[in-house]
Amino acid sequence: MTPPFTLNNRILTLVASISEILGKLSLKQPQAIDLRLRRINQVRTIHGTLAIEGNELSEAQITAILSGKRVIAPVKEVQEAKNAIAVYDRLMNWHSAKEADLLEAHKCLMLGMIDSAGCYRDSGVGVMKEGQVIHMAPPANRVPTLMLALFEWLAKSDDHPLIKSCVFHYEFEFIHPFSDGNGRIGRLWQTLILSQWQPLFAYLPVENLVHQHQANYYNAINLSTQQSDSAPFIEFMLSMIQQALLELEGSSTPQVSQQVSPQVKLLISVLHQAMSRDELQQACKLKDRKSFSERYLKPALDASLIEMTIADKPRSRSQRYRLTQAGLTLQDELKD
C-alpha cells in the first residue's frame, strides 16, 4: 500500500534545489567534508537528535564521551549518548529496506534503557503535548503488519530518495512502533535512506537543524496527520536538508578569510564550542556592547559563520553562539 502524500510545487522546487547543491558539492569532494568536519558533524547530529527528546548533554560533553572521557551528568543521559554514538557508528552497516536491521538498530539505541529494546511494542501508545493526547498510534497488534507494508513500499517505490526518506520518516512516527525511541530511530532511518543514495548524508547534521526548529518539526507531523497527507512534513524535512547542504557548501568555499573583516576574524578565532554573548565579548576584550554587536556579532551571523543554538528564540537568556561549518573552515585558515 502506498502511503498518502502529494507532491506540490514547493516540494518539487526543494528537490531540484537540493539536487543542484549536491551536484556542486560532488565536484569538491572529498575536501567538502574532511575528517575533522565529519567528527564535528557527528557530534552535532547526536546532540540534536538527543536534545529533541529532552537530553540536556552539551556538544562538549558528547565530544568527551565520544573520546572515551568521563562526564559528570545523569547516568541515563550518558547512556543515551553512548548508545546513539554506537548506532551512528554502525549506520552504513545496515540496509534501509531491511526490517531486521531497523530492529537491530533500535536494540542498540535502547540498550540498557528499556526491556523491550529491539522489539515492537505490545501495548497502546499516544503522543502527549501539554497534558493532551495529540496522536493515538495504531493498536499494537497492527504494528507488525503496518511496518511490513511500509518496508515493502520502501523497497519497491520508484519515488525520489529525498521523497521516500521523508515519507518513511513520517509514516514511521505515525505508526510509533516502539514503546520508546521512535523519534531517534525515525530520524536515523531517514539519514540511512539518504546515505545509501548519497554517502555525504551520513555526515550531514540535519538532526541538529531539526532540533533548532523543533516546534516546526512537531507541527509538520501533526498537520500531516490532520490532513492524512505527509506533504507538510516532506516540505519541512526537505527545507532542513536544503539548509544543511547550503551550510556545507559555504564551508567548502576556499579562503573565506579573504572575505571578512578583521573584527569578524577575531570573533571567529576566540569562539570555541558554544559561548554566550557576554563570554564572546569578554574573549574579544571589548567593553562596548553596541560596537560588539554591530561590528563583530551581527556580521558573523549575517555571513553564516556563526549560528545561534536557540534559533527560534534569539533573545533567550540561554542563547549561545557556535561556529557553522563555514566558520570552522575560517578558523582553520586563521590558524595557518
How many domains is the backbone divided into? Answer: 2
Strand proportion: under 5%
| Quaternary structure annotation | single chain
> In angstroms, what separates the terminal alpha carbons?
56 Å
What's the total helix number? 15
Biggest β-sheet: count, sense, barrel? 2 strands, antiparallel
Radius of gyration: 21 Å
What does this protein structure show overall?
- InterPro entries: Fic-like_C (IPR049514), Fido (IPR003812), Fido-like_dom_sf (IPR036597), Fido_containing (IPR040198).
- ATP binds at residues 127-135, 180-187, 217-218.
- This protein is mainly alpha-helical and 336 residues long.
- It has 2 domains: 9-251, Fic-like fold, CATH 1.10.3290.10; 256-335, Orthogonal Bundle (Arc Repressor Mutant, subunit A), CATH 1.10.10.
- It has helices at residues 9-26, 35-52, 59-66, 75-89, 99-109, 143-156, 161-175, 182-197, 206-212, 214-227, 231-251, 262-270, 277-283, 289-302, 325-335, and strands at residues 126-129, 132-136, 306-308, 321-323.
- β1 and β2 form a beta hairpin.
- α7 crosses α11 (231-251).
- It is globular, with a radius of gyration of 21 Å.
- It starts with 8 loop residues before the first helix and ends with a helix.
